[in-house]
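WARN retry 2 of 3 for item q-0093 after timeout on previous attempt; input resubmitted unchanged.
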Amino acid sequence: MSAELIRNFCIIAHVDHGKSTLADRMLQLTGTVSDREMVAQVLDTMDLEREKGVTIKASAVRMNYAYHGQVYELNLIDTPGHVDFNYEVSRALEACEGALLVVDATQGVEAQTLANLYLAIGSNLTILPVINKIDLASARPDEVAEEIEALLGVPAESILKVSAKDGINVDQVLEAIVIQIPPPKGDDHKPLQALIFDSHYDSYKGVVAYVRVMEGCIEPDATLRLMATRSDIKPVEIGVFSPGMIPVQVLNAGDVGYVATGLKTVKECRVGDTFTLAAQPAEKPLPGYRHPKPMVFAGIYPVEGEDYEELKEALDRLQLNDASLTFEPETSQALNFGFRCGFLGLFHMEIIQERIEREYDLDIVVTAPSVEYEVVLLNGEIERISSPARLPDESTIAEVREPWMRLEVISPTEFYGTIMELAIKRHGTYISQDYPAPNRVQLNYDIPLSELIVDFFDDLKSRTRGYASMDYHFLEYRPGNLVKLEILVDNEPVDALAAIVHKEDAYHKGQALITKLKALIPRQMFDVAIQASASGRIISRATVKALRKDVLAKCYGGDITRKKKLLEKQKKGKRRMKMIGDVEIPQEAFMAVLKLEDD
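OK item q-0093 returned
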């Protein structure tokens, strides 16, 4: 097909603004999916995606659309909407010439809408605004159109108003794509450059790379080279998504399709890499390739020690489909053998945790999440640590640096005060504010990532009755007044309960944790001391009292010395028991660290 008849576009939106539903209607209207095969959220194939209503993996689909006697080929690239998957979104945008900006008619412009919009503008895409959910009773399409006009400068009356659920005006969206989004540029005869914007693992075909051909063409018998990893492959199969995988004989410049590589791990075929021909390589790869960098770290341990191998296999398999998940073995005195895993963010961690429990049927304990700190030692060396237990001795440290984020919160103006209070409580620094629309404010803060990852989002939602939305991106590492908070149970440090906290918070966090643990640790036959220590001193202590038998039950009156003798004998027995006794720490204790902020 001539490149003039191809349109490559994606849909960008805030979570739950109806992106997947709009894609469903387009697939139905173009006859790509028959009514018999139609299910809600066709492109979201994972159960988790359907349940959470969030696209987690990008996907692509080809549709044929007849307009004025010509058949156009529309390639839709569906992108994840959550802030944790920002890198995948940015790669998917590079594969398009245009983007549909979907905005909910009841909620208006949200933080993630803006974040993805700026990414799309940065990639020089043609933006087509669409207002969705006009069928709802609380819809205010005219007000939202004015918000978009203020944002993009597009006349409010020309913005498409649709209901993806009821199929109202969706045909106008397809027409607008053909008329307004430019066809791809590219030359079939130049050296091959094809961008990998996503990949998944198939047990028969190896890694399947989703590609957009920028220059040149891909044929099934050509030897391809990955420019970042320098590895050469012979494709097992090349094809397009419609929406299933359909083999084709050639992918030309401007086409979106897939290359089944036969490779065994996604690591060898990273998102953002460039395919070229081994025989006639391009001079340089396409711009923008980088390794996705984990931001949040947590320990994952099997509840039953014998499940360790199965957990390793589960993580290996998940990594086949998700190159941004990293893990390495670690041991803990309290939880035995497990893995230290790195995630893009807290939502990513939650997804991995649920997939391990569901798809592999494993019982796991996940320790409190932490971030990666930079520790500058007195001898000038810099160490990176992702686990509080690995923090070097305080006497050798010059300073500890933590990652800071730029946070953007969009909210109705009535919640201005409560958001400010929350940000200041979490050590945020106010930067600026904007008013993207009447009665809506955008507040910009710099904030430590460690304060964001625990339950900042939940707190923000509850303070603003669910109306606020947020987006954040990495800024820099900054030195902070940080100390290691250690918990000792029966004079033994419990590494899985250690945390790195701001010095001024150490006392009340230590005290809150000790109070929680006192309630959670079961009583033994001897007294158990629980202590919190920071900066080399004990800052809080509680004792879990021993279970005791009433040894004085038989003494009715009589000599006090006899009672004392019996109590002394009991005390000795307890002391002997303490020497051989072990304190079992229940699972809930490790979760208590997470829930501290709720109190």
